[in-house]
Amino acid sequence: MSAAVVDAGVRVSNVSKSFGADGARVKVLDDVSLTIGMGEFVSVIGPSGCGKSTLLKVVAGLIDADGGKVEIDGSTVRAAAADKRIGLVPQSPALLPWRTVLDNVRLPLTVNRRANAGRAIRDPKELLASFGLGHAMQKYPGQLSGGMQQRAAIARAFVFDPAIMLMDEPFSALDEMNRDQQRLGLLEFWQSNRKAVLFVTHSVPEAIMLSDRIVVMAAHPGRIDRIIDVDLPRPRTEEAYASDEFRELERVVRTALHEVMGGAHV
Amino acid sequence: MSETSTIDATASMAAAELADRRTRRDAPSARRAPAWLRPRVWLPTAITFAVAAFLWQVVAITNPYVIPTLDAIGASLAGDPAMYWANFLVTLQEVVIGAASGIVAGFLLAVVMAEFRLIERAVMPLVVVVMVTPIVAIAPALVVAFGFGMMPKYIVTALVVFFPMLVNSLAGLRDVDVKALDVFRTLHASKWEIFRDLRFPGCMPYVFAGLRIALPLAVVGAAVAEFVAAGQQAGLGSLVTTSAAQANLPVTWASIALLCVMGVLLVSLLAVVRKRVLWWSDGEVVAR
Ligand SMILES: Nc1ncnc2c1ncn2[C@@H]1O[C@H](COP(=O)(O)OP(=O)(O)OP(=O)(O)O)[C@@H](O)[C@H]1O
Ligand SMILES: [Mg+2]
Q1: Is residue B284 pLDDT above 80, yes or no?
Q2: Shortest-distance atom of ligand 1 to CA A54
Q3: How far apart are CA A9 and CA A196, in angstroms?
Q4: How far apart are CA A49 and CA A28, in angstroms?
Q5: Of B135, B171, B172, which Cα lies nearest the Cα of B156?
Q6: Which of A86, A190, B193, B218 has the smallest set of CB atoms within 10 Å of its CB?
Q7: Distances in Å between the alpha carbon of A51 and those of A28, A58, A222?
Q8: Are the beta carbons of A125 and A102 closer than 8 angstroms?
Q9: For chain B, what is the mean pLDDT?
Q10: Whose CA is nearest to atom 26 of ligand 1?
C-alpha cells in the first residue's frame, strides 16, 4: 500500500463528537486534531469525563465522529479495521473465561482470517512467554491474577501485529504496586517492539514513564489543551523515576492538569 | 518512587508472577470428595424424608380412603413393573421430544430476536399472549385438533418449555461483555464469528438457568396433556386420571411418584451437564 509509506501512523483531524438528544446535546469532543507517528507512544491525560475514552473509541472505529476525519496509515478506520490493523486493550481485560490464556491470545488470528494474509503474525506462545505468562498458557483467565489477565489482554492485542495499539487505562484496575510492575513490563516490551500507541491514563508518572508525548485534555467540551513532549532518553528503566528531568516533567504535567481543571486539586 | 530501583523490568515482572501464583484460584480440574458424602450434608435431608414418610403412614393407616400406605404403593409398583415402565417410557418420550423441540425453538427465536430488534418488537407480544393463556385450557383444544396421539402432547410440552428458554436465552445473548465485544469489533469480526466465539458461549449460564425452569415444566406439560386425553393412550398422566376415577389409589400414587422421579432425574442430569459445560462461570444466573 503506497499510502502507508507516505502517511504512516494515525492522523486525527478536527474530530468532533456530541452525545444526547437534539434538545440537550453535549459536545464531548471539540475539534480534536492529533497525529501519532509510527512507533510513537502518545498518552492522553485529563480530568474524568473530558472525552478520553470517546477519542479512543473514535480512533478504534467503535463510535463514529460527527465531524472531522481519522486516518490510519492513510486509510479510513473502517478499512484499517477490516485489515486488522487496530489493536485494542480495554480497561478490563475482557478475556473469554471459557478459553485458555493461549486460546484467548490466539483469538484475533481466528476471526477475520482474510486479513491474516501476508502479515507478521507472532507466535502466541513466544509472545506469552515474553509477557511472563509462559507457565500460564494452558490456564483459564479465572485462575489468573488481575495483573496477569491484563498482560494476556495486551499480548492478545500484539499477536496480530497491528499498526496502532489503543489502550484505555489498561492498568487502572490494579493496585499501585502491581500497576507499576505491569507498566514497566509494557515499557520494556514496547521498547523492543515499537508500535504507534494511543494510551489513555489517569496517572501522571505512568504517562511520563511510557510516552514520547503527553496530550493534556480539558473538559466541557473535551478538547486538547496542550501537548507536552517527554524527552527522557530511551530505553527507559525504573531508574528514570528518580531523575531530575522526570520530576521536572511531573511538575509540568501536574501544573497543566491543574490549569485545565480550573485550579481544582488534581 | 520505589525502593527496588535497581531491579530491571524483567525482574519486576518475575516478581509480579510470583505474587500472581499465590493469588490464583483452584484449577477447574481439582477434585474434592463430593459434598453429599458428608453426613452434615445428607443427614438433614434423610431425616426430613423419614419424618415425612412416618407422617404419611400415620395418615394412610388411619384414613385408608384418603391416601394409600407406602407399602401398598410399593406393592403396586412391584406387582406390575412392566406396566409402569411402559407408561414411564411413553411420558418420558413426550417430555424428551417436546422439551427438545421447545428448547431448540426458544433458543433459535432468541438468537433471531437478539440480532433483529424489529422481529422482537413484532413477535414478542404474540408470544406473551400465547404464554399467559393457561396451558390446561389449550390442551383439550389441541386434542380436538390433533387427536389422541402423541402430537398434542409434544405440542403442549414444547409450549411450556418454549417461553422460559426464549426469555432466558434472549437475556443471555443481550448480556454480552461489551469490552470483549469492542475487541471483536476492532478486529472486524463478522456477526457469525461474534456469535460463535462470544455470544453463544457467553449466554450459556442463562440458557442453563432457563433449562432449570423448563425441564420440570416439561414434565408438568406432558402430564397435563395426558390428563386431557386420558383413557386413550398410555403414559403416567393417563394412569393417574384413570386409576383415580376407579379409586385405585395405590396405582394413582405410584404413577405420581414416578412422575416425580422423572423430574428429579432430569434436574439431576441437568446439574451434571451444567457442571461440565459451565465450569468457567462463577455464579448461577437467576432465571427470569
Ligand atoms: N454513549 C454515550 N452517550 C452519552 N454520553 C456519553 C456516551 N459516552 C460518553 N458520554 C459522555 O461523554 C463524556 C466523556 O466521556 P468519556 O468516557 O470519553 O470520558 P473519559 O475522559 O474517558 O472519562 P474517564 O476518565 O472517567 O474515563 C462524559 O460526560 C460521558 O458522560
Ligand atoms: Mg474513560
Answers
A1: no
A2: 18
A3: 7
A4: 8
A5: B135
A6: B193
A7: 6, 10, 5
A8: yes
A9: 86
A10: A48
Residue B283: its chain A contacts at CB < 8 A?
A: none
Query: Per-residue confidence at B65, pLDDT binned at 50, 70, 90?
Result: confident
- Interface contact flag, B185 A81, Cβ < 8 Å: yes
Here the cell at position B166 is 426464549
Give rounded-to-5 percent helix, strand, coil for chain A: 40, 25, 35
pLDDT (0 to 100) of residue A174: 87
Whether residue B22 is predicted with pLDDT greater than 70 in this model: the reply is: no
What residues contact B158, with CB distance under 8 A and at least 6 apart? B98, B99, B101, B102, B105, B221
CA distances from A3 to A72, B99, B164, B225, B240 (A): 10, 58, 54, 70, 79
- Strand, helix or coil for residue A76: strand
**Who's near A16: CB < 8 A, 6+ residues apart?**
A27, A29, A30, A31, A32, A65, A66, A67, A68
Closest chain B residue to the Cα of A160, Cα to Cα = B187
pLDDT band at B232 (very low <50, low <70, confident <90, very high): low
Nearest to B14 among A61, A87, A132 (CB): A132
- Whether the model clears a pTM of 0.80, i.e. scores above it, the answer is yes
Residue A2 has pLDDT above 60, yes or no: no
Question: Does the C-beta of A201 come closer than 6 Å to ligand 1?
Answer: no
How confident is residue B281, by pLDDT bands cut at 50, 70 and 90?
Answer: confident
Q: Please say whether the beta carbons of A190 and A206 come within 8 A.
A: no
Specify the DSSP class assigned to residue B199.
I
pLDDT of A1 higher than 80:
no
Q: How remote is the CA of residue A202 from the centroid of ligand 2, in Å? A: 9
| Nearest-angstrom CA–CA distance, A74 and A140 | 38
Enter the ipTM: 0.92
Percent of chain B with pLDDT over 90: 67
Q: Which residues of B touch A131 (CB under 8 A)?
A: 13
pLDDT of residue B17: 45
* Of A73, A109, A193, A167, nearest in space to B182 by CA: A167
pLDDT at B127 over 70: yes
Q: Can you tell me which atom of ligand 1 is nearest the CA of A47?
A: 25
Which class for A183: exposed (0-12), middle (13-18), buried (19 or more C-beta within 10 A)? Answer: buried
Interface mutation vs chain A, best among B176, B183, B274, most A CBs within 10 Å: B183
Residue A119, min C-alpha distance to chain B (Å): 14
Q: Is the CB of A51 under 6 A from ligand 1?
A: yes
Whether residue A4 has pLDDT greater than 50: no
Which of A57, A88, A187 comes nearest B183 by C-beta?
A88
| Partners of A200 in the β-ladder | A44, A168
Which residue in B166, B162, B160, B133 sits closest to B225, CA to CA?
B160
Tell me the C-alpha distance between A247 and A228, whole Å.
14
